[in-house]
Design brief:
This protein is an alpha+beta fold. It has one domain: NE0471 N-terminal domain-like. It is about 30% helix and about 25% strand. The chain contains four helices and six strands. The N and C termini lie far apart (about 50 Å). The C terminus is likely disordered. The structure holds zinc ion. Zinc ion binds next to helix 2.
Length: about 130
């Protein structure tokens, strides 16, 4: 049986919700999905020191642009910084949602904090 969710959507800036047919659903911070990127590049950075290193913050790093299914076994996100080499098998995708599931309070807190954040320059450019 595939662990493909029945729905995935951004519920607010920075938050992603997924639901599965067995009734499990969760909201996680999109940055968690990025930090779990299973591609060789991202995993290598982690292994060099054996410890987590604060990654260089790139513009758009945690900005989820799209989620492209790979066959019926995985999903391939494209990020705002152009990174698109992570293939997340659905089983792994589900585990991320189980591990990082946010509580109601955490979600309210997160939305409250992000409400007052100024727009990141360069992302919401409007020409008149
Ligand atoms: Zn990666």
């Amino acid at each position: 049986m595939s662990n493909m969710p029945i729905s995935i959507k951004k519920v607010s800036p920075g938050l992603l919700k997924a639901e599965w047919s067995d009734g499990f659903s969760a909201i996680i911070k999109i940055e968690k999905l990025r930090s779990e990127c299973p591609c060789a590049d991202c995993r290598e950075k982690e292994n060099e020191t054996g410890k987590f290193v604060m990654p260089t913050i790139k513009m758009g790093k945690n900005d989820l642009k799209s989620l492209q299914p790979v066959g019926n076994y995985a999903v391939n996100p494209t990020w705002g910084d152009g990174h698109d080499t992570g293939i997340y098998p659905w089983e792994f995708f589900r585990i991320i949602f189980e591990n990082y599931k946010m509580s109601e309070d955490e979600i309210i807190d997160f939305e409250e904090k992000n409400k007052n954040k100024p727009d990141i320059p360069g992302l919401n450019v409007r020409s008149n």
